Amino acid sequence: MLKQIVFFFLVTMAWIPLAAPVGGVENKGAEEIVIPSGKRGDVPFPHRQHQDKLQDCNICHGLFPQIPGSINTLKAEGKLASKQIMNKQCVKCHREKRQAGEPSGPISCNTCHDQE
Question: What is the pTM of this model?
Answer without folding.
Answer: 0.67
